[in-house]
Amino acid sequence: MGMSDEVRGPYADIERWLREMPSDKLELKRREAETLFRRVGITFAVYTEGGDPERLIPFDIIPRVLARAEWDRLSLGLHQRVKALNAFLADVYGERHILRAGKVPERMVLGNESFRPEMQGFLPPAGAYTHVAGIDIVRLDADNFYVLEDNCRTPSGVSYMLENREAMLRLLPDLCGMHKLAPVSHYPEDLLDTLKSVAPPACRDAPTVAVLTPGSYNSAYYEHSFLADEMGVELVEGGDLFVDEGFVYMRTTQGPKRVDVLYRRIDDDYLDPLTFRPDSALGVPGLFAAYRAGRVTLANAVGTGIADDKAIYPFVPEMIRFYLGEEPILLNVPTYLCERDDDRKYVLEHLHELVVKETRGSGGYGMLIGPQSTAADRAVFADRIKARPADYIAQPTLALSTCPTFVEQGIAPRHVDLRPFVLNGREIRVVPGGLTRVALREGSLVVNSSQGGGTKDTWVLER
User: Fold this and answer.
1) Where in the numbering of this chain does the Circularly permuted ATP-grasp type domain appear (predicted)?
2) CA angle at 395 for the pair 151 and 84, rounded to the nearest 5°
3) Which of 116, 97, 99 is nearest to 107 (CA)?
């Protein structure tokens, strides 16, 4: 919705407020928000462009608003999707019924670099694999939300969701007070409850939880320290941990303390040099053996990447039917798999109108946006697709919905997506709202912070 468009019901009070608010006051609030975020230290890091890697994610003070009925349907769809993705993970590392039934091609799973044969036959506590999922949602019409991609490994952004709400309550309390908003501040408590609920069988007392970070040079380090602080648990690096007689301990000033659950923000490859990359200095020798022995829980589980690989994404609706016996509530975006001959032929003939993505790419990198590309760009991608077709998928260029956004020219529509966060332990919980990302450049469809995107507070109206 842009300000020149028909105003949807949930935005009625926002529109009135914007019409009454002089632009110089909006600009003052925008600058106050920037000062607040800089003072708190809410940054992310980009290490590919030189100069100071620490960047402030632009924050837009006009919220994205969802009616309760819209959210309730979206929440049901998220619950359904994460339940099916978790069942898929349990199956492909177990009996592989879906592969034997031919619903997902076996070679796309077992030959995928995200598949971890080391997980075969191991069932994590409560059968939970993806304890924290971030499902990227786009809206293409008034009635339907579409899933753009599933993030089942180490999804980031929840700290911005929480800080965005805090900023709105501090900077614009009157506007917030005009609406009955579903709260999001309980997320750290829910996350801690979820992590404790999947403590390993060997845990006899109250579980000890810690957040495992690769360190301060990681682009999401702010979030790691923020969540550890909010949950009241230790933030540890690989060097702070050791394995002794099959159990994991962290070094403390009071001596070694056993750790039962690690919310790890380190990729599989770097977790344990004895099992995965031997050159990793980020992980803990012996950690995976302790995990397999049921003496520590890793959240998310090792090997969850096979569930969010972009080449597996087109099969999620079939997973929902196969495991749950239900029709998908949330739709997939139509997707072409370049390894299929017919799909590849279509993609190569229509590069000028499609979005092409690497199956293992992220952050908005490794993409071709056809309508904005040059002939030279398309030629490069055509060669890449022909050389390694299994590495690419393509989707239509989506007419993403827009939200009113305060930019230099004033209030203008900008494209948005939404990443709700789903917690999965002994039960599945969906936080009302999520992180709205906004493409601040006019006409841009790329919302990633590393590509010039910003964020908004996401409001779910209770009435």
Assistant:
1) 63-439
2) 35
3) 99
User: CA quadruple 438, 444, 448, 452: dihedral positive or negative?
Assistant: negative
| Mean pLDDT of successive 10-residue stretches along the chain, which has 463 residues | 56 88 88 86 53 68 92 96 98 98 94 94 96 93 85 93 94 92 97 97 90 92 95 97 96 95 97 96 96 97 95 95 97 91 93 88 71 90 92 84 80 88 96 90 67 86 86
Question: Is 405 in contact with 120 (CB distance < 8 Å)?
Answer: no
Range of the domain at 420: 9-200+296-332+399-460
Distance from C-alpha of 440 to C-alpha of 187, rounded to nearest angstrom? 27
Structure tokens of 218? 């990681």
Where is 132: in which H helix or E strand?
A: strand 132-139
Any idea what the Cα angle at residue 308 is, between residues 425 and 441, rounded to 5°? 110
Sign of CA dihedral 359, 268, 317, 10: negative
User: Is 53 found in the same domain as 18?
Assistant: yes
Find how far residue 326's CA is from the centre of its chain: 24
